[in-house]
Write a structure and sequence with these properties.
Strand order of the largest sheet: 3-5-8-9-7-6-4
Shape: rod-shaped
Strand content: 35-45%
Structural class: mainly beta
Number of strands: 29
Amino acid sequence: MRISSNYGLKLMEGTDNVKRQDFVDNFTKIDTEMREIENEAYPIVEATGTNAYIGATARIKSLGKGTKLTLFVGTNATGNCSLNLNSYGAKNIKDSNGNIVTNMKANIPYNLCYNGTDFILQGKGGGGNLIPKYLLAGYYGEGDNGRVDGAMVNRGAVTQALGLNGSLTLPEGYYNSVKIAQTIPSRGNTGGNVGTNWWSPYNVVSAGNYLHYKPNNADNGAMAYYGDCWISAPFSTIANILGITGDKVVAGNNICGVQGTATIQSMGKYVEVEDGRVEVYTNTEGTEEFKLTTGFRPRFVMVKYFHSKYNGTTWMLFNYTGDKWFGMGKRDNNSTTSTYSTSSVMSTVKFVDDGVIIKASPYSRNTVDWIVSE
């Protein structure tokens, strides 16, 4: 009688006298080995539910460390997955990295092994949020959604020349090196010496066209300057910034290239009238008077009128200084210049906000020549 090399079974030959116990021993060994084989296999468990799956199998009598099974789920997972096997209680399903699985798919076999706390997914490779554009073309990997084929272009080494004031945009892809070269030509000095100012301090350059000034030593947050640093700007720019126009500059003067055109008349502070008709009226004091309206309070007034007492033409100048009014003028064609006292002048003329009022009693004409200025 021979003995098998694998399990030690008794192998009867020819004329061997076989005992009943020999058969019992053989069948016992076969039964034992079959049980071990069955225990090593993954019993199939078909689970119901979504995420929190529930399943059962008669082949698993208890749940312990090393218990294995092949799981099929009926619906795709949408969150953290767990399995309640044979009512032993819900256990998390984790990958080999210890992360709870969230992407189980229906009718896909998953081999699980219990580690005493959780079911561990067996044989899972890769995983994560791998997407094509982050993987080189020609390569593939495993992500949470399965195989991922790379789409990133391998551009290799790049050398690019850049022109003066040019720019460069690199397309998407993988570069194992990038070299950008630019050559700035060397230039000589223009209009001066290298390292010095073009315009010497306090010298006039482009007279009549530019204004040159020296700033204080400072750091304004954007630039710093020190020493003989000069700034030049066209007169027209300065005039525009300051709002200088011809009507604001007195005639005969020039500021920043702007020729003045303003006169006392154009500035509205000078009025000259020849044969201006006046209406004599009686005021509240019972005195006749007339008013010269100017639109502003005058400081100087000259009035030419007919003086009945002296039977001649007289120019009178009224000027306000301090709190006194002074009048000067020619009494008649043959008299010399005279100065009138304060009291006599005050009785003749009165300055108001919009002109001057003159008593009419010494006059006998309805028209008057007059000049008024502020």
